[in-house]
Structure formats: C-alpha cells, structure tokens
Amino acid sequence: KLDLPLGLEVAGAEQHCRFNSMGExxxxxxxxxxxxxxxxxxxxxxxxxxxxxxxxxxRNLEQFxxxxxxxxxxxxxxxxxxxxxxxxxxxxxxxxxxSHKATDNW
Length: 106
Prior knowledge:
Elements lengths: L15 E2 L34 E2 L7 H8 L17 H14 L7
Antiparallel strand pairs: 1-2
C-alpha cells in the first residue's frame, strides 16, 4: 500500500517545513511557514519551498477520499445517487448537452 502525501494544497494554509535530517540526531525543522530569503526558492530556515507543505497536502489518498465524501453518501452502498444541488445539476446537464453527439453515435 502506498502511503505517500498527495501534495494537493489549500490556498492560505500554513505550510510547515517537513525537512527531516537522516543523521544521528534525526532533526526536524521547526519552521512553521515559508518565508523567502534572498533566493526566493529558499526559506530563511534554509530549506527549499517544496519542503514546506500544509497538513492538507500531507494527506494520503485514503485520507483524501475519506475527507472528500459528501455527507449524504452512505458507506457500503452502491448504485446511482440523485443530484440534489440545482447548480451542480445545471452544470451536469450543460456538460451532457454540449458533449452529446447526434450523428454517428455508435
């Protein structure tokens, strides 16, 4: 089972430094937010921008899917789900109407 972070980020979320040294002291950086130094890709803590991620970005696929499930969905149940939101239904209808192929529809 892969348990890697997805890396999906939320705008404005606090991005802690995730750097861990693999040395004897197993040091973890305590920086709590990316602050660009003179080199805009390096933080004042000395670690690159990609080392700074929010808790949201640290979620793996299983956590992402569990947190993304609409409240009205029932676990262990399969089948069709009625679209209740009028805005979502309108967008879905527009998608179907504009992508429908009236001829050579084999």
